[in-house]
Design a protein that fits this description.
By secondary structure, the protein is an alpha/beta fold. The protein contains six helices and 14 strands. The chain has helices spanning about 1-35, 55-60, 70-75, 75-85, 160-175, 210-220, and strands at about 40-45, 50, 90-95, 100-110, 115, 120-125, 135-140, 145-150, 180-185, 190-195, 200-205, 230-235, 240-245, 255-259. The protein has a nine-stranded mixed β-sheet with strand order 6-5-8-9-10-11-12-13-14. The protein has a three-stranded mixed β-sheet with strand order 1-4-3. Strands 2-7 form a two-stranded antiparallel ribbon. Strand 5 and strand 6 (about 120-125) form a beta hairpin. Helix 5 packs parallel to helix 6. The chain is elongated and about 110 Å long. The protein starts with a helix and ends with a strand.
Length: about 260
């Protein structure tokens, strides 16, 4: 009976210690999360790929007065929130400088397209996100490294269009990596490549695009003066049609190359 009483007393002591410890921890956490000293008072934003505008500071001002310990513990969650707010951002890293300052470092998605119309031009990532916004401007990139897309309206830029456009440009970069080409896409079934700003290459629909580009590459490899052509037409299956700029007396107006 003595051992039973001791065991009962020991169990009660453990329970009381656990309750007091839990209460103390609760009070401590409450103090930490409400302590004025630990409320965020300064937000620093930096990037190696963009110039940051004042509106971005305004957009992220909701993080002020949040508890710095809470931001430290859940930094990954808040970083994902920031990426959802700004579609052009690729990576975000949040660090906390206790007690009241946080640092947000982000990088933009890589520029891939330069879309040009009569009214404006815009640099976008491969997923179509504009890199220049009210919140930041991309640091200048050499446009020679961008894929130039001409005359694509904003109404055309849908998720399905971007997916097809990416498939098309990836095929072009694979088969013709060294050729200076631009894309003219009034519609997806009226694709025209423009070589060196002057020579139209009529692709038509993206169907059999790899076969068309293989044929084009073979033609350009063997035809040494493409600048003497008015256009190249790949819309007829297994043919490359090339029209000279001027009609020589000794040759037909249009050259057909069977593949």
């Amino acid at each position: 009976s003595l051992s039973r009483a001791y065991f009962k007393h020991r169990t009660m002591t453990i329970k009381l210690n656990f309750l007091f410890s839990a209460l103390a921890l609760f009070l401590l956490l409450g103090f930490i999360f409400k302590a004025p000293l630990l409320l965020v008072k300064e937000i620093q934003i930096s990037s190696n790929s963009a110039k940051i505008e004042s509106k971005m500071h305004e957009k992220l001002s909701y993080l002020e007065q949040k508890n710095s310990v809470y931001l430290f513990l859940f930094s990954a969650y808040y970083a994902s929130q920031i990426k959802e707010q700004f579609q052009a951002i690729e990576t975000v890293n949040i660090t906390v400088d206790f007690p009241s300052r946080i640092h947000i470092h982000f990088e933009l998605k890589a520029p891939f397209y330069l879309s040009i119309t009569q009214k404006h031009s815009v640099v976008t990532s491969q997923d179509g996100s504009p890199l220049k916004t009210l919140f930041f401007n991309p640091i200048k990139e050499n446009i020679k490294h961008l894929f130039i897309i001409k005359n694509v309206s904003k109404a055309q830029i849908t998720t399905a269009f971007i997916k097809q456009l990416n498939q098309l440009t990836e095929s072009i970069l694979f088969h013709l990596p060294q050729v200076n080409l631009q894309l003219h896409i009034p519609r997806l079934d009226q694709i025209v490549l423009i070589k060196n700003d002057t020579l139209p290459i009529k692709i038509g629909s993206p169907k059999d695009i790899d076969l068309k580009l293989i044929a084009l590459n073979a033609f350009l490899t063997h035809y040494k003066k493409p600048e003497s052509l008015e256009y190249i037409d790949l819309r007829i299956k297994h043919k490359v049609i090339a029209k000279p700029l001027t009609k020589p007396l000794y040759s037909p107006e249009i050259n057909h190359v069977n593949l």
